[in-house]
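Appendix B. Chain record.
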Amino acid sequence: MAEISAADVMKLRKMSGQGMMDCKQALAETDGNVEKAMELLRKKGLATMAKRAGRDTSEGRIVFKVSADGKSASMASLCCETDFVAKSDEFIALAETMGKYMLVCDAEQDPAALMNTAIAGKKLSELITDSVAKTGEKTEVGEYAKFKLDGTSVVGSYVHFNGKVASMVEIATSNVSSQEPIKAVACDVAMHITAAKPIAVDRNSVDPVMVAKEREIAAEQVKGKPANIIEKIVDGKMNKFFADYCLVDQKFVKNEEIIISKLVADAAKKLGGTAAIKRFVRFEIS
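Structure tokens predicted for this chain:
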């Protein structure tokens, strides 16, 4: 067996982020070959992931990033098993590194594509595997979305202080030269989305199957009344449903005197233009 030098142990530790004893053991099992020892540690991480595949990943952090040229905005969740790991320096650093991969990834809504994105020849999935080998916890990208922008939109974001729930929203605006005030409103709207949990931007965006089901439930609740009365009552209940769950119809959580569509429109009007919410995503680790 080759003699294991302290220098090789330190080199492997720097490469893998593993503990001294784990690195020394890996080198011992590979006859002092640093590259093979690194491969062994990665296999250990893959084995751990396979073993814990069925475990819940109900902790973690959500990351939001905007590209330097302002042409895209991305959000993703990195999930693990315990709060202890989620709050560790290593996991927080991994989440920030994931942010760099988010900026490079070209997919618009595919966690697997983000995992397979590579920087300097190293995939994000490999970094996660290395982390699993160290923490012993299942770790994965939970949700991912990217908004590609055409210069006529602004994006607002809000990440709650616990890092486990966040939203980003895109607002199309005619105020191309004066976007900062609209961005501020967009961030307010993102905060609202995080708290109010809308299911769609507007009534036309709600899944037709869900609408039909809600109408059916509403009709069942007033069964036995005259048909013309039932229709009016059902319409009223549906209006209440849309007001509760469609973003543009919701009352602003910071001021219930105003609805979200008016909040956005008024902000643009002050600048002499128009604006409307285009899309949003809301992620929650739970």
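Further analysis of this model is presented in Appendix C.
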